[in-house]
Amino acid sequence: TAGGAGEGDASISWEALLKEKKIWKLSRHSNPAIRAATFSLVATAYKQLPGFVGAQAGLLCPLVLGSLGESDPVVVGPLWEAILLTVTSSESWNDHVNVQKALLPGLWSMLVAGGNGSARVIYPCLLPLLSKLSEKVYATDVHFAKSFLEKLRSGLQADRVRGSRSECEVVMQSFVECFVYLLLHTQPTELEREAFHSHLLNMVIELVDFGVSQCPASQCEVVHSTVVRLLWALLQALPREPWLGPLLEELRRQVAGKVEQLVAADQAGDKSKANFSRLGDLLKCFQSQSRGKQSEKQAVKFSVETSDKTESTDGGRTDELAADGSGEVKAAVQFIQPALCAACARCICEVCNSKSLRHSELLSTVLGLYGDKSLVESICSSLESEHSYLLKREGHTDAGSNLLVLCSSLVRAANLELEEPMD
C-alpha cells in the first residue's frame, strides 16, 4: 500500500540518520539543550526502531552509559530515559561497555552529589539500573554492593539534598529499595557472607545514629521514617526468605544497644537536648508509620516459626508495606521491644538516681505508646539483672524489690491498663 511504502521510506530515512556518527558527537556538545535532544533521539530510536538500534549497540551503549555523570537538569531527564531503555532493550549492553571504567565513575560521582539537584528525576531509576547491573555484572560482587550503598547514603550530605525535604525523601526511598534488593540478591561466597551481612547491619545502625545526632533538623523525620520503612521491608521479606531470621535477630540486638548507648550518652553530656528529643521521635515513629500504612491486609509476625500463614502480596515493592494497622503495630512492638526495654530501663535508673526530667519525659512517651504487661515485665527483668548496678551505685539498694511497683505506677501514670494486676 501507499501507506506501507511511506512507512518504509521513513524507516530508511531514520536508519540513514542514525548511521551518521556526527549526530552522536552532539551528546558531548557544550549546549545542554543539544545534549538533551541527542539523548531524546536515542530514546525515540529504541522505541521506534528496536531492531536497527540493537544492531548499533556497539555505538549507542557506550554513548549512553558513559554519560551517567551528567549533571545539567536539562539533560538528565532524556538521558535517564535513554539509560533505562538501553539496559532493558539490549540484552548484550554489558558486552559493549567497560562498566568499571566507563559506567561506574559517572554513577559514583552522581550518587555522592545526591543527584546534583535532580534526585527526583534520577533516583526512581536507580533500582531498575541496579537490577540490571547486578544481574549482568555484579551478582556475586559484595564490594560493588557495599560501594553502591555507601555512595548512595553519602548523597545525604550533599548541599542540595540537605536543603530540600523532597530531595531527601527520594534519596532515602531509593536507599531502602536498593538496600533490600542488594541484601536479597547479592550472592556472596561462604567466606564473604558474614562480613557482608555485618556491614549492612552496621549501615542500619549508622543510619539510626545519623538521624538522632548528625542530620539537619529538616531531615530528621525523613531519616527516622526511612529506618522504619527499611525494617518493615525486611520483616515483610522474612516469610519468603527465612534465612533473614538470624540476621533480623542480630539487628534487633544492635538497635537496642544503640538506643541504650544514645540514652546513656545524653546523661553523660555528650548529646544535646534536641538530640535526646530526636531519639524519642524515632521510637514514636515505629508506631505512627505502621498505623499509617493501610495499603494491604496482612499481619507481619517477627519469627520464622510463626510466619507460615503470612504471605507477601506487594509484588516485591518496598514502598507499599502490607499492613492492617493492628498487625503492624504488634510487629513493631515485637521487633523493637529490646530497644524500648533498654531505653526505659536506662531512663528509670536516671530518674531514680538524678531525677532527670528529660529521661522521665522519654519514659512517659515510650510507655504511653507501647506500654503493656509484656514490656513492663521485660523492663523489670532488665533492671533486676543488667541495670541493677546503676541503681545500687547511687545507694538505691531497696529499688530492686520495688521495681514491679515502680513500673506498674509508671504505666498507670501513662493512662494504661494492664490485662491483669502484676504481683
Instruction: Report the mean per-residue pLDDT as an integer.
Output: 78
User: What percent of residues are in strands?
Assistant: under 5%
What's the Cα radius of gyration? 27 Å
Largest sheet: none
Question: How many strand elements?
Answer: 0
Q: Which H/E pattern describes the elements?
A: HHHHHHHHHHHHHHHHHHHHH
N- and C-termini, Cα separation: 92 Å
Which residue ranges are poorly predicted, with pLDDT under 50 across at least 5 consecutive positions? Answer: 1-7, 293-325, 394-404, 413-423
Portion in helices: over 70%
Structural class: mainly alpha
Question: What would you say this structure looks like, in words?
Answer:
With 423 residues, this protein is mainly alpha-helical. It has 21 helices and no strands. Helix 7 packs parallel to helix 10, helix 9 (126-136) runs parallel beside helix 12 (165-185) and helix 16 packs parallel to helix 18 (357-370). Residues 1-7, 293-325, 394-404 and 413-423 have low confidence and may be disordered.
